[in-house]
């Protein structure tokens, strides 16, 4: 049984490197050094890619390698076929065109946003073979295990002739994508806005980059985190007041992440006004893992916010962040530095609260942003909206949540991440937010998915905030109590009307459910005068005109 | 209530940058460009650091900035005092000397290893004010939120005059430490083995590095993951056989992480021999998030292992990894590339199984490596040894574990990470591994810790493997069943003898407990002839003499 260890292995151990060298040789005629003319970009891709390759075509939450996407979509499908796309964002029409043309076949992704409906159709029609819908950290992690890209198509603001890349505030996913690809003998191609003699700072070292293409147009960035204060409703202001008094103040939450919606934008705009009344400055909401939300500007300017680390940037915020290095992470060149993986890890392990909105919640507290005909994907919310069992440091907020969750006095005390869903009982078009069954369950059956796409599972949710009040699920001791606590804040939705009134009253007496008046909040006080900024223009003024909002938000 | 947004803020927003400029000015007289002579290193540190600074003095799992540690320990404690050390490893005597001298006061760390006993004494004596004992991902995450270093003292193999750093296989924690420090206007100082004109590859771009010191001696690396096959016991071989048949084969585990102990080394050495008998090649243990364990060499050479991403390197493995780029991540220079944060993320989100050993397990399945007089710290095991609730991709192993954990047919099916503790019922010095109460509970009381240091909490553990059999905790439906399943594999320890024999027999009938014979394993077959390598020399032969073991493992 003992094998002979001294028999030399006949196997080749560098097939990846050989493949890489062949690809580079095929591409050589299109390149001068690392530089490739934009007219040759499609030919470059045809030379470098092989059928069946795993390809990451960034494709992030915000920035897009849009020129390379167009070039790839124009490739000859008899040459380039069956690619396996492994990228976080499927957000451009070109991303789906690849599948229509047969250039790509399999997809592993994380977020689809504007392409959610088209993606659902492509899945139903069989054009796309779905691997899985991931969370960000999960997909990045698989880059190092079983989804390592053969080719990464990345995007930067500028590059030098050695391939050193400057991404500035828009670093996002690129460092992790490029590390996984370059260090597994893959090929890295960058589109850049311009070639320069010297980059302002090195976000990715040139020796990880094989080709640089100066794109004819500046790359696209989606202003995904801009919320116009003028569109914040009074109901959203009320839920924000509830969250501030019933959760932020109650637990002393200092380190946190906010979701993308108007409810959390309202919280940001209430810090310098409503929260100020209760002397909470410095005691809540001081350290954020957060994109640079324009609605955070008033809280920054009034000294509420002490530090922000960001996943990515936000259109129009560059000059403001450059002028606030005490708050934001900025490079030696002065501009902001983001990193989605680092910030997701920070949001998972180093914050005490995740708060976000959702489209649907079921009576068990499971939530989803999927509807019958749209697959929005997950992004990072499920990473941050979960209790990391590998956390071992205490904080007041975390320990209090842990005590509430414990039944009696456990032998081993533990803390608990606060995971809050903040919603209005009825959403857009007056669809009820609370539903007996998530649409995603039906969708999973229709599309034969391994798992129904659930954004945050009910057992990770600690609080649900609606205009009717706060349900503290940590204090529920049975599944029935939990369900009634959720029904008890679900308002006039069918889920809410099906509540057991006696149990709900009992839960309120036990402070499991807290109504606005239980927290000293008069719903009539919830009005727009409470917002520190009531318009995009107000945000500009707060920033000393450093914030430069994108055109579509300028309605003056 | 509406604030005036157009009142200009009188506040300075660049105090961090101003402080940085003052520090750089103080240090200028010791530097030519970025280069500082090693004789001036202590003066440099005295010039650059300020009392109360958060300092990361790497201090990783393996590589050590040992020269800079000695220089800092020699600093004048009337100049440099009350530093807050925020680093993953407290493993050198100098790390503790800093606290004795009053240069450092507060500590946030992750792993102590050889200094565990001295650290416990320093905590008991009040020399160290403890923040928390973290897991790796958790500490790295806090670097971006509330433990951002003011100064990072890092270590590389070589640097050029621009400060570009080459770490080669020993990258480990450095990229994340340096990113957090440099992008928050902190100061980065690197000790290097040599200055070169051009680094073989850029692991950290020079514009993030302020000073480079050529150290008089090569930096120290601990060969932490080398296990001599000659020391693997027959009991460990038996537990390895159980794990292979009862877990790896049963669940079809392909993506995994192994702990540091002899039990998992035995599994590695049984893959090409024992596991081969069952036709498992390609069906189990193909993709690893793992340090380059020398005991993995036979499994690599026989084609079992398809890909390995590593946290760090291992002494003596450099040439072997360079020759196996299809297996390991390697840079364009040919040498291996590691990254602790990326690999921890991979171990958390992209593997289906974590298996490791521990010193103590209680009847609830909680485990600890802390003993009455030693604080070993956590390292990364609790990150990987936990079920990540933010995972959304399916695999056969994960789905099967999820089905077993589910009581009945849940509305929302979910998977589950396999978290396995593999131990012998009695450890070194015949101390029982199974104890009614973890020593760490007592220690936490003595040292007034916020939380008892628990390595992996019982509710994350899915299986416990001992020489008596496997307890599958997923199949337990009550706390009592769970406790009896654990007692039922705890052998002749007091915990094992206190079992309820009737319940344990019932659990065995339900396959919750499986004895060796239930898996077709004869304990008498567990002998050293099953090991693919029986000595360090065998490992060298397997590697074609590419593996170059450190002297202390060469007993010939």
TrEMBL record, chains A, B:
Gene3D superfamilies: Glutaconate Coenzyme A-transferase. InterPro entries: MadA (IPR005777), NagB/RpiA_transferase-like (IPR037171). Pfam families: Mal_decarbox_Al. One of its GO terms (molecular function) is acyltransferase activity. Its EC number is 2.3.1.187. Keywords: Acyltransferase, Transferase. It comes from the Bacteria. Transmembrane segments: none annotated. It is an enzyme of class 2 (transferase). This is Malonate decarboxylase alpha subunit.
């Amino acid at each position: 049984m003992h094998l002979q260890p001294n028999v030399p292995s006949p196997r080749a151990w560098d097939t990846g490197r050989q493949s890489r060298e062949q690809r580079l040789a095929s591409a050589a005629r299109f390149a001068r050094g690392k530089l490739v003319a934009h007219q040759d970009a499609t030919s470059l891709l045809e030379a470098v890619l092989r059928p069946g390759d795993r390809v990451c075509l960034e494709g992030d939450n915000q920035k897009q390698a849009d020129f390379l996407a167009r070039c790839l979509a124009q490739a000859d499908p008899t040459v380039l076929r069956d690619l396996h796309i492994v990228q976080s964002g499927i957000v451009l029409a070109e991303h789906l065109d690849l599948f229509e043309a047969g250039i790509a076949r399999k997809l592993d992704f994380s977020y689809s946003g504007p392409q959610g409906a088209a993606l659902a159709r492509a899945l139903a029609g069989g054009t796309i073979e779905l691997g899985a819908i991931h969370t960000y950290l999960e997909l990045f992690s698989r880059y190092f295990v079983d989804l390592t890209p053969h080719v990464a198509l990345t995007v930067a603001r500028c590059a030098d002739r050695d391939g050193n890349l400057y991404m500035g505030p828009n670093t996002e996913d690129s460092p992790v994508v490029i590390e996984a690809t370059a260090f597994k003998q893959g090929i890295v191609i960058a589109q850049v806005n311009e070639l320069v003699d010297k980059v302002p700072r090195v976000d990715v070292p040139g020796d990880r980059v094989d080709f640089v293409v100066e794109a004819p147009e500046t790359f696209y960035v989606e202003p995904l985190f801009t919320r116009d204060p003028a569109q914040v409703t009074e109901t959203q202001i009320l839920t924000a007041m509830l969250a501030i008094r019933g959760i932020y103040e109650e637990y002393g939450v200092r380190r946190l992440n906010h979701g993308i919606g108007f409810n959390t934008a309202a919280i940001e705009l209430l810090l310098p006004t409503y929260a100020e009344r209760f002397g909470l400055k410095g005691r809540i909401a001081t350290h954020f893992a957060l994109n640079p939300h324009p609605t955070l500007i008033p809280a920054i300017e009034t000294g509420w916010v002490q530090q922000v680390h960001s996943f990515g940037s936000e259109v129009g915020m560059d000059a403001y962040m450059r002028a606030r290095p005490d708050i934001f992470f900025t490079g030696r060149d002065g501009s902001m530095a983001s990193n989605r993986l680092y910030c997701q890890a920070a949001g998972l392990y180093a914050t005490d609260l995740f708060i976000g909105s959702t489209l649907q919640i079921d009576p068990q507290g499971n939530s989803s942003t999927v509807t019958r005909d749209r697959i929005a994907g997950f992004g990072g919310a499920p990473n941050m909206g979960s209790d990391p069992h590998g956390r071992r440091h205490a904080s007041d907020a975390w320990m209090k949540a842990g005590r509430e969750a414990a039944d009696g006095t456990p032998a081993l005390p533990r803390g608990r991440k606060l995971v809050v869903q903040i919603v209005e009982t009825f959403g857009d078009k007056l669809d009820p937010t609370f539903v007996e069954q998530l649409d995603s369950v039906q969708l999973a059956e229709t599309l034969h998915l391994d798992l129904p796409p659930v954004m945050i599972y009910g057992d990770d949710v600690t609080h649900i905030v609606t205009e009717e009040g706060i349900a503290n699920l940590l204090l529920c001791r049975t599944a029935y109590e939990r369900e009634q606590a959720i029904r008890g804040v679900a308002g006039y939705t069918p889920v809410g009307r099906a509540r057991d009134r006696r149990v709900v009253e009992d839960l309120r007496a036990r402070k499991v459910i807290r109504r606005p008046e239980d927290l000293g909040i008069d719903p009539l006080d919830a009005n727009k005068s409470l917002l520190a900024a009531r318009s995009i223009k107000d945000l500009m003024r707060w920033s000393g005109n450093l914030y430069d909002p994108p055109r579509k938000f300028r309605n003056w």
